[in-house]
Write a structure and sequence with these properties.
heterotrimer, A alpha+beta (about 270), B alpha+beta (about 160), C alpha+beta (about 775), B: alpha+beta, 5 helices, C: about 775 residues, alpha+beta, seven-stranded mixed beta sheet
Chain lengths: ~270, ~160, ~775
């Protein structure tokens, strides 16, 4: 089980990396921590022509809480977030999520930006950050642009990133101290990809996300409205009703565990 | 081919490698440090766990080119290391290995637990070991060995 | 007369720490994949992506024509054959590379050779194979049907083997007023030793031998098979199993890749290495456990089980592996279903069927996890039906200690033990009364609490008479061991079995210590090398400790006698006055060290007595238990589980084991084997499944979708022992390596069904995944599943 051949660029600067991407002839992939791409390449499920390694590019691993929003560099690892690298209530939420991602030896390499750009529907950050709200910061050939998490992931392994763009950071709301949040993952074993995710964050307005679907995670407006109305509980039956209208192709069991995840996420938020 | 310079177990080595060569195959086949084992080659089983700049990583899904400029410690590089010495003794005393195939990766992961989480209890130890598969022992001896070393280190 | 060790705790019964550990802890083990030679080549296999098809053509990539080999390119490599003498058994060739037809996804079609594995995979990826797809047979029940596509040419159906035992159920009709019927499935799995198969081969011209290092449990059988299917003489083949990273049955057969690697090493005159990767293992090696059962128990309202009627189907996959055959599983199911129970009547039909899936191999426990699961789950169903505790039904129907030896209704000759005692001890250890009290109220977190158990009896170290009745080509006989005193008084012990985690380098040294009193640290145990060890059929059937341990004991005893002759002479006393003890020959007049004996025999034979045994201080002795019908280990496992009725997720809260493997040579190793086995059983019960779609495509081809038990899935086991020595074996030892896996699916399934009894739901198909548990709950509640 060995990767197919590829060319390798160790980008020195973001500009170099973008230039290489801009001139791509073939499948060029940006390498973050490589913890998702690596397995797919070993299995030859991914066979890119060229990898552009960002590990030597400066300026992508900052955590800046000085402004109104939190800015977290794309190359910040899950382990750093697990260890409390992100301050405040947003940091507490992210620490909780990070701790449940895969295993420590993967978290030491895997990055938040890589996870978002890879956009595996069963991964944690796409669901967790959609529930938090905020934006991804994208560097392109003509400078930076921002995209809200709403609409960033458009399907399984598909995002709004262009082929010649690089996700460089995320900008997240700074939750007030004591803000309510709940995250619940259904899986059979710690560290495994989720079978279902429920994520609820009571920021400026409640956001509730149903994740680990066959496609992109989605917000459940009926749950958000219920929470906005002051509810602090969500039964499984209610959750089933509320997500069944979204038609993500769930069979009954999948509908059930996603409803459980959402119900328990709400329960955790208001515990 | 890409040139890399890596410090492995304290020795700085330079080599030309294909970009697709994994760090695991680099240490095993190029450096002949065969204590690092391959169990799944897709980052789940943990047999290939080594330290990169002091932190455990999966060497099977880390390309050798990416390790350029880093310090790597494989199971062969811990002979003077106090927590590893404690763990080896505890693994022996607690029958924490049978076939020995998962053992090197298990020890590197265990070393991370006893150094990073000095207050870990049994539930936490099991959680932290969840990324290292052992097919032989049922984890009984491994968990007991890690708990024993945690206890020793707490004094 | 040798009385060996004193009582300082290094002989039989001692928790001696393992001699094997230090090399593995240092990362200095020596596994097959660690071997590297100048000029070596590596292999990658082109494997079928379809379950059933004719091969119309194989197109080799331009420039690599000489790097790709199909069966047509490998003259002299014969298809493997594993004959069986069982009546009605249908055999079929198992070609190492597909010959015109593929019969499962993952079947090797061609082999590619390159300097590195990555390059070999590049070539394999570029090989184009044109398949004409045929209708596949994926499900074992569908495979039985008369209109199913037939997998093997010349067969009129897919039934590999049918066995049938009838009985007269009218004898019990008036008393057996309770009839409980159930249907069960046990899923197909992959065994997943952490090291997969690995093989390194080179031709050694100096000795004109094919030298194969391979990750196997049975080096001598591999040699015999290689010679047979490559047309070599056996003296031309030497097989070495170095450190082997777990076996569990996966490594008791000759693998097609071994055969290909050997042919290539011979014909390319280059060292050849092939290391199975995990996807190959999960796809091509998804090869065990898959059974289906219809079980009917006939009982009295008080819980006396009078009759068992069972219809078993075994999914044998596409081929029959050498040498054990795919008939073994069904035959063993037939003989083991009644377990430790006394029955008046037993009817059983087994059908072993061929399907378009990888060939069935004997995984740890072989058939018995399936039969124990079917029987024990039905006993609990009976208990629920008549409203008594299931352990009471077990205890009242088990063969009693006073009846031993006892011939069971399935003709198993039980040797010793108190089966019901294991049940009672498990009931006490798990705290059944307290659990029942806790069940009266829901758990704090709303989950449902359940308690269940499973009992089994396991035939181990069964020998010639048993295997010959199974019709297998390979029948074990006397097991041999060689001991040799070294000139400085150490001991070399050579055994033909193979240790791959069982710690035999330690436990066999304990046996030597028991006889000779020699420090286990001064004993070198050599195993797994056909060039250095006596022929043995190898390590399987929980036989090694009984067989090789027995042979070691016998050989050491003869060696002791010979050393006594020399020692008596050196001590100037009569033979009757000396004995071997504590690593010395001792008399009232003094003592002689083994080193002194060694020095005299090897270097100063001028000091030897006239009557010295000319065989010297090297002895080979054979051993076979008498009778060789097997030593029967038994155990009861009990567990408590919590079922999350909303998600269907099951957590094992507590798990206790009471086992009896006769005399324990090293209780630490016994417990380690048992815990490991039970954890594999947890995988079977809750996690592991090699599923297929309707076209025969595997659904679980990586560890991302094949869930292995990890440290959080394994409970904190508690264990206790009963020691009932076997009257038939040396020291009363019984085999025990496999047993831990056997009752776990039953114990956990019973606990789940106990938790669900208030809902009226039952699970009946392993693994008991959240989806299946939810489906059972939904079905009982009349909801959508």
């Amino acid at each position: 089980m060995k990767s197919a051949k590829f060319d390798y660029d160790r980008a020195g600067t973001l500009g170099d990396a973008l230039a290489t991407l801009g001139n791509a002839d073939g499948e060029f992939r940006v390498l973050g921590g490589g913890q998702s791409l690596g397995p797919m390449m070993n299995l030859r499920l991914a066979q890119p022509d060229r990898l552009i390694d960002l590990s030597k590019v400066a300026g992508l691993d900052g955590i800046d809480a000085a402004g109104a929003t939190l800015r977290i560099g794309a190359r910040v690892t899950h382990a750093r977030i697990e260890d409390g690298g992100v301050p405040g209530e947003t940091g507490a939420y992210m620490k909780f999520v990070a701790t449940g991602i895969s295993y420590r030896s993967v978290r030491n390499r895997g990055t938040i930006g890589g996870s978002l750009a890879h956009a595996d529907p069963a991964a944690d950050w796409p669901s967790a950050l959609l529930a938090l709200g905020g934006e991804v910061v994208i560097a392109g050939q003509d400078g930076e642009r921002k995209m809200p998490f709403d609409g960033f992931q458009i399907g399984p392994f598909a995002t709004g990133l262009g082929y010649d763009e690089i996700l460089v950071a995320v900008e997240l709301p700074q939750l007030a101290d004591g803000a309510k949040w709940g995250y619940y993952k259904v899986n059979r074993k710690p560290g495994e990809f989720a079978d279902a995710i429920g994520a609820v964050v009571m920021g400026d307005a409640p956001r509730a996300v149903c994740g680990a679907t066959g496609s992109a995670p989605f917000r459940v407006d009926a749950i958000e409205q219920k929470l906005a109305g002051g509810s602090t509980e969500l039964s499984i039956a209610e959750a089933r009703d509320m997500i069944s209208g979204h038609d993500p192709g769930f069979d009954d069991y999948e509908l059930q565990i996603h409803a459980v995840a959402l119900s328990r996420a709400v329960g955790r938020a208001f515990a | 081919m890409s040139e890399i310079t890596v410090t492995i177990n304290g020795e700085t080595v330079t080599g030309n490698v294909e970009p697709r060569l994994s760090l695991a195959d680099f240490v095993r086949d190029h450096r002949r440090l065969t204590g690092t084992h391959l169990g799944c080659e897709h980052g789940v089983c943990g047999a290939c766990t080594v330290l990169m700049n002091g932190e455990p990583v999966r060497s099977c899904i880390t390309f050798a080119v990416v390790a350029d400029g880093t310090e790597i410690t494989t199971i062969e590089g811990f002979d003077e290391d106090e927590p590893m010495t404690q763990l080896r003794k505890a693994f022996h005393e607690n029958h924490a290995l049978q076939c020995g195939y998962c053992t090197p990766g298990m020890l590197v992961a265990a070393r991370d637990i006893v150094t990073r989480l000095p207050d870990a209890d049994e539930a936490r130890v099991r959680l932290e070991l969840a990324g290292n598969l052992c097919r032989c022992t049922g984890y009984v001896g491994i968990v007991n060995a890690v708990l024993q070393v945690l206890e020793e280190r707490r004094g | 007369m040798a009385d060996g060790g004193t009582t300082d705790g290094r002989g039989i019964g001692a928790r001696v720490l393992r001699k094997e550990d230090s090399r593995h802890l240092a990362g200095r083990g020596n596994f097959t994949g660690d071997i590297k030679r100048p000029g070596q080549v590596e292999l990658a296999f082109v494997r079928s992506p379809v379950a059933h098809a004719l091969i119309k053509s194989v197109t080799k990539p331009a420039g690599f024509e000489k790097s790709v080999f199909t069966v047509a390119d490998m003259p002299g490599m014969l298809p493997m054959r594993a004959p069986s003498k069982l009546p009605g058994y249908k055999g079929a060739d198992y070609p190492a590379l597909a010959d015109g037809k593929v019969r499962f996804v993952g079947e090797p079609v061609a082999v590619c050779v390159a300097a590195t594995r990555a390059e070999a995979e590049d070539i394999a990826q570029a090989v184009a194979v044109d398949y004409e797809e045929l209708l596949p047979v994926v499900d074992m029940l569908a495979a039985r049907e008369p209109d199913a596509p037939v997998i093997h040419d010349g067969w009129d159906d897919n039934i590999v083997l049918e066995t049938f035992t009838d009985d007269d159920f009218s004898k019990i009709a008036d008393r057996a007023t309770v009839v409980v019927k159930r249907e069960y499935r046990m899923a197909r799995q992959a065994m997943n030793p952490m090291e997969g198969k690995a093989v390194f081969v080179e031709w050694d011209d100096r000795v004109d031998q094919l030298m194969m290092w391979t990750s196997t449990q049975v080096p001598h059988l591999i040699r015999t098979g290689l010679a047979q299917f490559l047309g070599l003489e056996q003296r031309q083949v030497r097989v070495i199993a170095p450190d082997v990273g777990g076996g569990f049955g996966y490594k008791v057969v000759l693998q097609p890749e071994e055969l290909c690697a050997a042919w290539l090493a011979r014909h390319l005159r280059a060292p050849v290495r092939w290391i199975e990767d995990r996807r190959e293992h999960l796809v091509s090696g998804a090869n065990c456990r898959e059974h289906h059962y219809h079980v009917t128990l006939h009982a009295t309202p008080e819980g006396d089980i009078l009759g068992l009627d069972c219809d078993v189907t075994v999914d044998a996959g596409a081929y029959s592996a050498y040498p054990f055959t795919n008939g073994l599983e069904g035959a063993m199911a037939h003989g083991n279903l009644p377990g430790p129970y006394k029955l008046d009547v037993y009817r059983c039909r087994t059908r072993t069927v061929s399907t378009n899936k990888p060939p069935l191999l004997p995984y740890r426990g072989v058939a018995r996890p399936g039969v124990c699961y079917a029987m024990e789950m039905t006993i609990d169903a009976l208990a629920r039906e008549i409203g008594v505790e299931a352990h009471e039904i077990r205890a009242r129907n088990m063969v009693e200690e006073s009846e031993m030896p006892f011939m069971s209704i399935a003709k198993k000759h039980f040797d010793s033990g108190n089966y019901a005692k294991s049940v009672q001890m498990a009931v006490d250890m798990i705290g059944l009364d307290e659990l029942r009290a806790r069940q009266a109220a829901p758990m704090e977190d709303g989950r449902l609490l359940g308690v269940g158990m499973g009992s089994y009896v396991e035939q181990t170290a069964h020998g010639t008479s048993v295997f010959s009745s199974w019709g297998v080509a390979m029948v074990p006989g006397y097991e041999q061991a060689t001991v040799r005193l070294t000139p400085d008084g150490g001991l070399e012990l050579r055994i033909g079995v193979q240790s791959h985690g069982q710690g035999m380098e330690t436990s066999m040294a304990q046996v030597a210590y028991e006889v000779l009193g020699i420090d286990p640290d001064n004993v070198t145990v050599t195993h797994g090398d056909t060039g250095l060890t006596p022929y043995s059929t190898g390590t399987y059937a929980s036989r090694s400790m009984v067989m090789a341990g027995g042979a070691t004991s016998r050989a050491c005893k003869v060696l002791a006698e010979r050393m006594e002759i020399i020692g008596a002479h050196l001590l100037q006393c009569e033979r009757a006055e000396v004995s071997v003890r504590g690593g010395k020959v001792i008399s009232g007049k003094g003592e002689v060290s083994f080193a002194e004996i060694g020095r005299v025999w090897y270097l100063n034979p001028d000091e030897l007595p006239e009557d010295v045994d000319q065989g010297g201080v090297e002895v080979t002795m054979g051993y076979r238990p008498e009778p060789d019908s097997g030593a029967f280990t038994y155990a009861t496992h009990a567990c408590a589980v919590a079922v999350d009725a909303d998600t269907g997720k099951v957590e094992v809260l507590d798990y206790v084991i009471v086992e009896d493997c006769g005399t324990m040579v090293n209780p630490m190793i016994v417990e380690g084997q048992t815990f490991g086995g039970a954890t594999q059983g947890i995988g079977t019960a809750l996690l592991e499944e090699s599923g297929y779609d309707a076209a025969g495509n595997p659904l679980n081809s990586t560890f991302a979708d094949y869930t292995m038990p990890g440290a959080t899935n394994a409970p904190h086991y508690r264990i206790d022992h009963i020691e009932s020595p076997s009257p038939f074996t040396e020291y009363g030892i019984k085999g025990m390596g496999e047993g831990g896996t056997i009752p776990t699916p039953a114990a956990i399934g019973n606990a789940i069904n106990d938790a669900l009894k208030s809902i009226g739901a039952e699970v009946s198909e392993t693994p008991f995944t959240p989806r299946r548990v939810r489906a059972a709950i939904a079905a009982a509640k009349g909801e959508a599943a």
